[in-house]
């Protein structure tokens, strides 16, 4: 009984929200790449493993459309594409991601034309600044040691700048692996990389490990930015 003689109303017990109500949807990190001979694709697949190892972040693999005809690709002895990795539907699909890792082979120190054509199709997104503030990084493939492991990523930064995106290099966060001199290794402070040689050389374990590290590192950065 209360002081006024009336009944004290019982406190209603509200059910606790279920775990599904408490949980937040995973952050989406798109790994968008072009790969003619499979070297960049190999890095991308390993990179996804790194991203997916970070709780709350999910990687999605996409390849950009091919611009060369089947006849030309056959003359260049390019292997068939892996159908399990979908082609990105359109540039507007990028708005569904929270962050990006873009991969491509070099062409004279710049990204391959196929990836450039994809970036050229993002004009409407640029006009409306739909990608502004989203983080992005790069990974590359070159034929030789002096073929553009750094400049291919460096020249691609202009794409991010015009979109207002945040460039995220890996620096030397890979630790001792960045300083090994006992074997040939692609990659730099700008991002993971692989030396393709004449096309027959495949990514080494250290190159793949660097790609996995970049995925994990990028996912951690994405989580930090989401908490700001």
Automatic annotation (TrEMBL):
Pfam families: FMN_red. Residues 1-23 are annotated as: Disordered. Coiled coil: none annotated. It catalyses: a quinone + NADH + H(+) = a quinol + NAD(+); a quinone + NADPH + H(+) = a quinol + NADP(+). Residues 29-218 form the Flavodoxin-like domain. It comes from the Eukaryota. Transmembrane segments: none annotated. Its cofactor is FMN. GO terms for cellular component: membrane. Gene3D superfamilies: 3.40.50.360. GO terms for molecular function: FMN binding; NAD(P)H dehydrogenase (quinone) activity. Its EC number is 1.6.5.2. It is an enzyme of class 1 (oxidoreductase). Belongs to the WrbA family. This is NAD(P)H dehydrogenase (quinone).
